[in-house]
Amino acid sequence: MTQTVQGFIKKTVAFSERGEYIKALDLEFMACSLLGIERSKLFSSSITLEKKDKTKFLSMIRRRNKGEPLAYILGTKGFWNLDIEVNNKVLVPRPETEIIVEDVLLNFNQKYLNVLDLGTGSGAIGLSLKKEKKEWNVYCSDLSEDALEVTQLNSLKHNLNIHLICCNWLNAFKPNSFDLLISNPPYVKEGDIRLHSDGLNFEPPNALISGITGMEHLFSIASFSKRHLKKRGYLYLEHSPDQAKELKLFLKELNFKNISEIFDLNGDKRAIKAQNS
Ligand code: GLN
Question: Which atom belonging to ligand 1 lies closest to the Cα atom of 238?
Answer without folding.
Answer: 9
